[in-house]
Specification:
single chain, 10% helix
Length: 218
């Protein structure tokens, strides 16, 4: 792909870490545990090996986006010839998050009308793309983990994910229909502190609702 103009990115964060989301639905920059930590997605620096977390709608006719009113929750809406869907992006927030943040990136794909097909790529490249991770599937817990040096995360999705041959990325094909949701959760931790507990759809939906409410109260 070619580089995206910096003006095409929107910023999300939780007062600890941040991510930049392109109009296409790709997260091309993310420092999720701290603002000054090594980036784990950095396609904005190298579009070939920098890594990204992309949720790309197929056959897009138009795109619009906004922050939900009085929040830092980003809503990107895609219209195709078969329907309309949106992605809700945030770093989840909670009371007491100043000292105990979730350190969680939450992406929810939501069908509005008809159906929309998406291609998903999760390609982490820790420490400014200097480290390719080892991606592992934990069958009993139904989650993935990725470890690279002193960085790691736990990832879960409603979609069926496929691990690349080099064990360094994940892909999925996703179709979302009206009133359906598909959830993607990525939680940062140290390799020796990974919590492999799979969170229910209700918990993830509630974290989105709580994050919206936190921003409105802030």
């Amino acid at each position: 792909m070619s580089y995206v103009p910096i003006a095409d990115y929107a910023l999300i964060g939780d007062c600890h870490g941040t991510a930049l989301v392109a109009k296409s639905g790709s997260i091309d920059w993310a420092c999720l545990s701290r603002f000054d930590c090594g980036a784990m997605f950095c396609r904005i620096l190298d579009d070939k090996k920098g890594g990204a977390f992309a949720i790309d709608a197929r056959n897009v006719a138009s795109t619009s986006r906004r922050y939900l009113p009085d929040t830092n929750v980003l809503e990107t809406t895609f219209t195709t010839d078969t329907g309309t869907a949106r992605i809700l992006d945030c770093l989840t927030m909670r009371e007491g998050g100043k000292t105990l943040p979730f350190r969680q990136l939450l992406r929810i794909v939501e069908g509005v009308s008809g159906y929309v097909d998406f291609d998903v790529l999760i390609e982490p490249r820790f420490d400014y793309a200097s480290l390719k991770p080892w991606v592992r599937y934990h069958r009993d817990e139904e989650v993935h983990s990725a470890v690279g040096g002193s960085d790691a995360f736990v990832f879960q999705a409603d979609a069926d994910l496929h691990t690349s041959e080099d064990l360094a990325s994940l892909t999925a094909a996703l179709t979302v229909r009206a009133n359906e949701r598909s959830r993607f959760s990525l939680t940062i931790a140290s390799p020796h502190e990974l919590d492999l507990t799979r969170l229910s759809s209700d918990i993830l939906d509630q974290r989105l609702a709580d994050t919206i409410g936190w921003w409105k109260r802030w």
